[in-house]
Design goal:
The complex is a heterodimer of chains A (891) and B (122).
Chain A (H helix, E strand, L loop, with lengths): L10 H10 L2 H21 L2 H14 L17 H18 L1 H29 L11 E10 L2 E5 L4 H10 L3 E17 L2 E10 L3 H4 L4 E3 L11 E5 H8 L8 E6 L5 E11 L12 E4 L27 E7 L5 H16 L6 E7 L21 H28 L5 H10 L3 H35 L18 H27 L3 H6 L10 H34 L9 E5 L5 H9 L4 E7 L10 E6 L5 E8 L4 H4 L4 E4 L14 E5 H6 L5 H4 L3 E4 L2 E9 L15 E4 L9 E6 L4 H15 L7 E3 H8 L1 H35 L1 H10 L3 H34 L12 H28 L2 H5 L3
Parallel strand pairs in A: 4-9, 6-8, 15-20, 17-19
Antiparallel strand pairs in A: 1-2, 1-10, 1-11, 3-4, 3-7, 3-10, 5-8, 6-9, 7-8, 12-21, 12-22, 13-21, 14-15, 14-18, 16-19, 17-20, 18-19
Helix pairs in contact in A: 2-3, 4-12, 5-10, 5-12, 5-13, 5-22, 6-9, 10-13, 10-15, 10-22, 12-13, 15-22, 15-24, 15-25, 16-20, 22-25, 24-25
Chain B lengths: L1 H16 L4 H13 L5 H12 L5 H14 L2 E8 L7 E7 L1 H19 L8
Helix pairs in contact in B: 2-3, 2-4, 3-4
Classes of the chains: A alpha+beta (891), B alpha+beta (122).
């Protein structure tokens, strides 16, 4: 019962009260509550009064008393939207330059984005036409071969059978064996087709449709042939080939003949199949020993080490886990691995990763591959381009913020909520993005054919993608555009909506240029970093690529073209070529150096105490001279082997000597080694040279021998003289066609062959440089816009300075100083970052790296500086030259 | 927006069913009785005394506001006092419509009471 007049009701509760009570009722209710509070203070303790106050406040929470919840479902939504739409269009039209820059940047991003979306969508749909796609797996093998761990997409038939027997949960097994390349005689001549040998369960696993023939029986009997529709048309024309006989000549050296019968016609495998083929032959055809003479070994069904040719596909029961089968595999292999030299590990690969597995990690793929890391690279770069465009938009919008402050002020005064102002600017950004989408679609159709032509070595002449558009994709694109608009417009809208109406009108001088100058600077620096970085990466990758191609291999490759021979006519052809004047020389070999193909051999020292693995090439007596190998001791082969003569000599390289401890080259001549149960005398020693492509580990030891049979030569090397290579090539082709009417004339120059190996790196380089150009273009546009704006807004300042006596040089320096500081900062960050990234990601694949000089390192930086100088410079000169009287007139 | 629709519909239903709830009737009667002194706190105290139980400010206020919306009450600002922290009170007055309805109800009740059988046997 004390003085109650000075004590107020609890402050925070009162605040809550004021929050929810309707404004009309507030005075009365607040007054009532206070009166009651004071009464309670008299009747009870202070604490109780406060408690009662809180309690009563709580009980005041009734709908009729509470403020109406302000849901923005004001019935005028449509009207507001129309207004925003119109305002946006008007604003876009008024600032044509800025709108143009933004639209250009965004259109380019849209085009690239569309490409990415279609690409990813197509990749995701690979092999999706198989009914059992969720349960199809492929057996992979890992084995240490030639000193390196190799991962293959193939396995042995042995393990497939073991698995079929011993593992429960494996419902179906299809064995698809590669290496089928056959010559067919047709009415018009002959042609060569590629495909697989396959077990009859092929159609139980895969959902390829048979147009004619019974899927259960088509591959059941030996000598059964299934053709794809287009292949059948090539061979049989319009006739129905079902039941007709067909003769195929296969095998290396084309020694094997299959007299088969056509048992099925397959609809052409769709483009999104990981397996590409023209013909299927029943697997049991190979059981006929009279057919498989040289290439296929007799025990291909039972040898657990025959893991390079067979694709083993499994259909697992839904309830079975992949790990379970893998452990069964490990158990089986445990026993086997104890008996063989290097252990083999088998794992399962699910269908959805067939195409995206990295080709450098998984070899022997049966069709196209598009490894995940390259996909990530492209998506990442696309994202950078997109960011560039978004930064432009943000920058330019913020710069112009001041111009729109009056409009914003009026809107707020009339009653727009902050959210509505925010929404207006987002609408503007999204609208711009949608316009850009339309233009981007147009751009996309322009670049689509270019992209589809990108070479992919694993696709062997087939196109990788079709990039068809579906209505669903249109939806994706629209969503993409809207999201881009929201991202690009978010920052400007956020900042602009913060402007307070009364401040604009009352106190114009107090408006801070918070239009985020610091933020804008950061964004610009970012753009510069991206541009510098991308250019640098492109330059570095290109340099490495050229370096790899030009690397001194240790032998001469100029003007030498390699012709692949697929018949028994190499001596004849050599003789024919000898008549052509442009041909300086010819030589035969079984292997082309520098590409990466390998024939391995095992050699032992004379006392059989040590042995090494080495790579071997069978050559004739002219080979070493033609390629200008450096012979350190002894000589090359002197004569060709006669009809039944056994080989007696071998020519080795320095590494070979080291491996068998044979001493220095001079001393090694005359020593003997064992190879293939032949005792061979070392006739000569050559200097070490590069054999495998520079991306794989070099196999060090190498040797040349003479072949036991001239049929083993697969390549005729021809050294051409003179400059008119095209004419010479035509003569070579004519000579070839005269002797071989079945196979197309395949010739490659060493340079192009080596370059082909780097095709995939080249493709990567092309993509990087393309996207780099885009990003730089967009940044430059943005820079130009900023420059225009800055100069515009400072024109009065420039005018005054001019009047006070500043020269053009001074003015130029003043206006551009800020930009160059930003570029230098960007360079300081971008250069080390790019170097690090390129080293880590790209260079890792190369053993021999090019040296990086100052020009490469500064390349990106210099390009950006020059582009900036041009864009800013022009603006500055224009401003500096302007007559100050004009700009100051309105003061 | 949905909430507003909801309240509007329930109001419609309420209006159709009963014109005046029991509590509302009591509050209305109290307003008539208190004449010039009919404002929130006073109404509350009066009713509490007559009913012999405590009422919350919320219930009184919501009844008053509802009836004002229905048209049974009018109100205008009265004087402010120090006790109320300088806030004015609202004085409520029953409308002619309210008087009529009260009369009707009283009439109905009276007749019902008259038709009641002798209570002595209960």
């Amino acid at each position: 019962m004390g003085q109650s007049n000075n004590i107020r009701p609890p402050k925070y509760i009162l605040r809550i009260l004021r929050l929810f009570v309707k404004r009309n009722y507030l005075e009365e209710i607040e007054g009532d509550m206070e009166e009651i509070f004071q009464d309670n203070m008299k009747a009870h303790s202070k604490a109780k009064a406060r408690r009662l106050y809180a309690w009563e406040t709580l009980k005041l929470l009734r709908p009729i008393i509470m403020k109406k919840i302000k849901v923005s479902s004001s019935p005028n939504h449509y009207g507001m939207f129309k207004n925003h739409f119109k305002t946006s269009l008007r604003s876009l039209r008024k600032n044509l330059l800025f709108s143009g820059i933004n639209i250009t940047g965004l259109s380019i991003s849209m085009a690239v984005g569309i490409l990415m979306i279609l690409l990813l969508s197509e990749l995701g749909s690979f092999d999706s036409f198989h009914d059992q796609k969720d349960n199809i797996y492929r057996l992979t093998s890992s084995k240490t071969m030639f000193g390196r761990e190799r991962n293959l997409a193939t396995a042995s038939i042995f393990i497939a059978n073991e698995l079929d027997e011993k593992a429960s949960g494996v419902e179906r097994v299809a064995i698809v064996r590669g290496g089928l390349t056959a010559d067919i005689k047709t009415k018009d001549g002959g042609l060569n087709i590629n495909g697989f040998y396959s077990s009859s369960s092929f159609f139980d696993v895969f959902s390829f449709k048979l147009k004619e023939g019974n899927p259960r029986a088509a591959l059941a009997d030996p000598n059964s042939i299934v053709l794809t529709e287009s292949t059948s048309r090539m061979i049989f024309g319009r006739e129905n080939p079902m039941g007709k006989p067909m003769t195929m000549i296969t095998g290396s050296g084309l020694n094997d003949t299959i007299n088969g019968m056509v048992t099925g016609i397959l609809r052409d495998p769709p483009l999104n199949s990981h397996m590409r083929f023209e013909v299927l032959v029943s697997l049991n055809t190979l059981d006929n020993t009279s057919i498989s003479t040289s290439s296929e070994r007799r025990d291909f069904r039972t040898d657990p080490q025959d893991i390079s040719l067979n694709y083993i596909y499994l259909v697992l029961n839904e309830t079975v886990k992949k790990e379970h089968i893998e452990s069964v595999l490990a158990n089986i292999m445990n026993g086997i691995n104890s008996r063989i030299e290097t252990p083999i590990t088998h794992l399962l690969q699910p269908l959805d990763s067939f195409v995206t597995s990295e080709s450098s990690l998984l070899e022997n793929l049966p069709g196209p591959s598009f490894p995940l890391n390259r996909i990530f690279l492209m998506v990442g770069l696309t994202f950078i381009v997109l960011l560039s465009a978004c930064f432009n938009y943000t920058n330019l919008s913020l710069a112009r913020a001041l111009r729109r402050s009056r409009e914003i002020g009026i809107r707020k005064v009339i009653g727009a909520s902050r959210f509505q102002v925010f929404g207006q600017f987002i609408v503007e950004a999204v609208l711009l993005a949608l316009i850009a989408l339309i233009i981007g679609l147009g751009l996309f159709f322009l670049i689509k054919p270019e992209f589809l032509d990108l070479p992919n070595p694993a696709a062997r002449g087939h196109r990788m993608f079709s990039l068809d558009m579906d209505y669903v994709h249109l939806l994706y694109f629209i969503v993409f555009a809207v999201v881009t608009g929201c991202i690009a417009g978010f920052l400007p809208s956020f900042i602009l909506s913060k402007l307070k109406g009364n401040i604009i009108f009352n106190n114009a001088s107090k408006i801070k240029i918070f239009s985020g100058t610091d933020l804008r600077r950061v964004l610009m620096v970012f753009q510069f970093i991206m541009s510098i970085g991308l250019i640098m990466c492109a330059v570095l990758v290109h340099k490495q690529y050229r370096f790899a191609v030009d690397y001194d291999l240790g032998y001469n490759t100029d003007q030498i073209v390699n012709i692949s021979i697929k018949g028994d006519y190499i001596d004849l052809l050599e003789y024919e070529y000898g008549k052509i004047p442009e041909v300086e020389g010819t030589s035969k070999s079984s292997m082309v150096l520098g590409i990466g193909g390998a024939i391995m051999g095992l050699a032992e020292s004379e006392d059989r105490n040590s042995s090494i693995r080495f790579l071997i090439n069978e050559i004739d007596e002219k080979y070493l001279d033609m390629h200008e190998f450096e012979v350190l001791a002894g000589s090359g082969f002197l004569d060709a082997l006669k009809e039944n003569e056994n080989r007696q000599h071998i020519i080795v390289n320095e590494e070979f000597l080291k491996g068998l401890d044979l001493g220095p080259p001079q001393d090694a001549i005359g020593k003997n080694i064992w190879y293939n149960n032949d005792r061979l005398r070392i006739l000569g020693v050559v200097k070490n040279f590069v054999n495998m492509s520079l991306t794989m580990n070099l196999e060090k030891a190498f040797a040349f021998v003479q072949p036991s049979d001239s049929k083993r030569y697969t390549t005729l090397g021809v050294k051409l003289s003179g400059n008119d290579l095209v004419a010479s090539m035509e003569k070579l082709e004519k000579g070839y066609v005269g002797l071989d009417s079945v196979h197309p004339f395949e010739s490659t120059f060493y340079d192009s062959k080596i370059a082909e190996t780097y095709e995939q790196h080249k493709a990567t380089y092309n993509i990087i440089s393309f996207l780099a150009v885009l990003a730089v273009l967009i940044s430059t546009l943005g820079l130009m816009g900023m420059a225009v704006f800055t100069v515009e807004s400072r024109k009065k300042e420039v005018g005054i300075r001019k009047v006070l006596g500043a020269g053009i040089g001074n003015l130029a320096l003043l206006l551009s100083r800020g930009y160059f500081v930003m570029i230098i900062i960007a360079g300081a960050i971008a250069i080390p970052l790019s170097l690090y990234l390129v080293n880590k990601i790209v260079m890792n694949e190369f053993l021999y790296r090019t040296k990086l000089g100052i020009p490469e390192v500064l390349s990106g930086f210099l390009v950006v500086v020059v582009m900036s100088a041009i864009t800013i410079g022009r603006q500055i000169i224009m401003a500096a030259v302007r007559n100050p009287a004009d700009t100051l007139r309105t003061e | 927006m949905i909430f507003n629709i909801f309240t509007a519909i329930t109001k419609e239903i309420k209006m159709k069913k009963t014109k005046l709830g029991e509590f509302e009737e009591l509050v209305l009667l109290t307003v008539v009785v208190l004449q010039n002194e009919a404002y929130g706190v006073r109404i509350k105290k009066e009713l509490e005394e007559r009913l012999g139980e405590t009422l919350s400010v919320g219930s009184i206020q919501s009844a008053l506001k509802r009836m004002e919306q229905k048209g049974f009450l009018t109100s205008e600002f009265g004087g402010a006092t120090r006790k109320r922290g300088g806030k004015r009170k609202r004085i409520y007055t029953a409308s002619r419509q309210a008087h009529r309805v009260l009369g009707e109800i009283k009439e109905i009740r009276a007749r019902l009471w008259a038709s009641m059988p002798e209570l002595s046997t209960l």
